[in-house]
Each structure stands twice: as C-alpha cells, then as structure tokens.
Amino acid sequence: MSVRDCFDLPIADADPAVAIGYDQYVHEFLSYGADLRSLFAIADAAPACTHTNAHAAALHLAFEGAEGWVSAAPYLERMRRSRDGLACERQKLFCDAVEAWSGRDFHKAFSTLDELTVRWPADLCALKWAQYHAFNLGDQAGLLRLGTRAMIVHEDRPYAHGMIAFALEQNHRLREAEEEGLKATEIAIDDAWAHHAVAHVLETEGRAIEGARWMRRCSHTWDKKGVFIRDHNWWHVGLFHIRLGEPDEALKIFDERLWGAWPEFPQEQIGAASMLWRLELHGVEVGDRWKPVLEQVRTRVEEHVFPFHDLHYLMVLSRAGAPGEADQFIRSLTTYAERQSGAAHEIWAGACLPAARGIKAFAEGAFEDATRDLADVIPRLHCIGGSHAQRQIFIETCDAALTALESGAVRSSH
C-alpha cells in the first residue's frame, strides 16, 4: 500500500521517510521558504522515487537559467527510468509536465498541470506549479482558474488564499484580491505571496503610503524566506518609495535588499535591472550599480528562456554594455524568435522583438523609434509573462520617449 502525502494523496513509489521529506518540501514551496534545496538530498537518497525526482527536476528548472537545465538532468533521467512503471496517473501527469518543461514546451507543461489539477484539486503543490506556468505565459485567466480551483479543497489551508489573491489582482478584481490577501495573512502571517498580492493592489490604486507601510509591517517574516520572494517583495517596497518621491530610500533598498544575495539568480538580475531602469527614468543617478549586474547578464545572452527575462537583460546591455553588445543580443534574439512556431512564435517574434527594438532605441536616444515600437507592442505584452506592475516599465519607457520627443529631442535611427 502506498504512503500518502499531506494532502492525503498517494505517492506510489515512496516509503514513509521519503513522504515526510516530500511534505517538508511542499510546505517550503508553498510558503516560499528558504529550505527548498533539502528536496535534492531526499531525491538523491531515493533514486527510484519518481515523484521526488520529478519535483527536484522542477525546482532546478525553475532557476530559469541554463544552469537549471544542467542541474535538472540527473533528476530527469531518474524520473524517466521509473515513470512508465508508475501505477498513479496523477504522478505520471506531473512527470509529463516536467518533461515538457525540460523541452521548453511551456504551453504543454501548463496544459498538463491544468488537467492534473482538474482531476486532483487537492494537490495544492501541483496547483502552485501550474500557476507558475500560467504567470510566465501571461495567462491571467488560467491563473485565476487555478486559484479558484484551489478553494475547492483548501479554503482554510495556509497559502491557498495568497494564490487566489494574486490571481484576482492580475485579473483586475482588486477589491476581492485585497480581501483574499488579508484573509491569507490571518491564516498564516508569513504568507509572503499574499503580502505581495496586496502590494500589487495598493500599487495599482496609487496607495503608495499604505503600500510602503503594509509591506514594512510584513517584512519581518521575509528574512526566513527564499531569495526570490525576499528580493521581490523588497522590490515592491522600492517602487512605493519611488512613487512617493523618495529615491534615496529606493537606492538604499537596492543596495541592502535587492542585489548581492544571489547575483547568479536570473530573478535577482531582472529585479535589479528593473529597479535601476526605473530610477533613471525618474532622473535618479544610480552611479556604478549597473556594472555588477552587467557582468552577470553577459552570461545569459544566448539562453532565451523567457522573453520577459530577455527584455530585462537587454535593458542592462543597452544601458551599460560595451558598444555592439545590445545589437548582438538582438540578432541572437531574432534568430531564436524566427525558429519558434505557433504560440511561441507569436510571443517571441510578435511581442518580444518589437519591445526589444524599442528598449534599445530608447537607450540610444532614438525616441521616435522607441515610441513607435513600444506603443505598438504594449497592448500585446501581457503574453510575455510578468505582472502588471513589472510590465509597467515598458509603459513608463514609452511615456519617457514621448516626453523627450515633445520636448524637441527628436532623433531617429532611420
């Protein structure tokens, strides 16, 4: 008889000790805890356990850089060896999603997890992974569908309400999102994703004073969280201070909270690029803070994992790179986009490429080109992933280019 996990779902090929370790990982994953890496030791100690090795591969792939694919390889191989012998259809579906993910077929990974969670909505971990893919694909409706599905079984479970809160905010249902985010923190004060969801509401509504106060009240719980949510939530605090006309506070947050914890992590690179670009759009001198970000971004120019990432890498190269680096990156990006087909081609060639040209044009002072390219593509940019708050930077850049044009700084690359 198979053991069961914390959702009372069977893990067909695990012993009780492995199941305990898996449950610990689930808690860390849902709470954005700092001890996610403990899953790798659990998977290593049980190479025949398909489930833990599939989740270990997923964790590595979620690094979102080339190193993640390299590190995931042995776990993927173990997963493949034992997948066909599984008696549990739910676990097979999760393996299929991870397999598609490893081949960069993110749409198939998402659709497989969507199917899995329709059939087994108790699997809150799979629901969270499905939301991860929906977010990266810009599928706001899918994000909300999954959040709503989580409520079928998990009405009073910690971290479930944070999932639906963010989904509601991304679907412009702000009042409900705020209510769900506050409810989430009543259930679990350390629900950093719920803190984040409420921050989005307050940012969208221009409630910057409330936003800064809310996030700082919650921030004592973030020290025990993983780098991603800790960095990202402080990034939101920085946005509130920019909105409040307090750039020195934003710079202090950058220096103390946004850069240096894990410079090799793509999400840290993206957050840093986004904050520095915003500060400069607001006329703030950021000194030499671009330089260490540039050194990390240069290692990523041939990866093309997500279009959202690439646009931020291009910001760094355009602003701080050597002459020609941004041009080389766009050539590589163009080649990659042209190789895609179907929905992926629409995203990379139809949305990412024109946005990339607009960013580069803005950095070069070609404001007419920047305005044209960005204004044309902004309505389609939701498909590249990222949140409304994160994609706002493209609107701000377009606005800055238009302002420059209106002030007489007319220049074009043509």
Major beta sheet summary: 2 strands, antiparallel
Cα distance spanning the termini = 71 Å
Shape descriptor reads: globular
CATH architecture of the largest domain: Alpha Horseshoe
Helix content: 55-70%
Please count the helical segments. 21
The CATH topology of the largest domain, please? Serine Threonine Protein Phosphatase 5, Tetratricopeptide repeat
Give the class-level CATH name of the largest domain.
Mainly Alpha
Oligomer: single chain
Strand percentage: under 5%
Counting structural domains, the number is 4
User: What structural class do the secondary elements suggest?
Assistant: mainly alpha
SSE string = EEHHHHHHHHHHHHHHHHHHHHH
Strand order within the widest sheet? 1-2
Gist?
The protein is an all-alpha fold and 414 residues long. The chain contains 21 helices and two strands. The protein has a two-stranded antiparallel sheet with strand order 1-2.
Describe this structure in words.
The protein is mainly α and 414 residues long. It folds into four domains: 1-154, Serine Threonine Protein Phosphatase 5, Tetratricopeptide repeat (Alpha Horseshoe), CATH 1.25.40; 155-205, no CATH class; 226-299, no CATH class; 301-414, no CATH class. 70% of the residues lie in helices and 1% in strands. It has helices at 16-31, 38-45, 50-61, 66-83, 89-102, 106-119, 124-136, 140-150, 160-170, 174-187, 192-204, 208-218, 227-243, 247-258, 266-281, 290-297, 307-320, 325-339, 342-363, 367-377, 388-406, and strands spanning 3-4, 10-11. Strands 1-2 form a two-stranded antiparallel sheet. The longest helix is centred in the C-terminal third of the chain and has 22 residues, at 342-363. The model has no long low-confidence stretch (mean pLDDT 96).
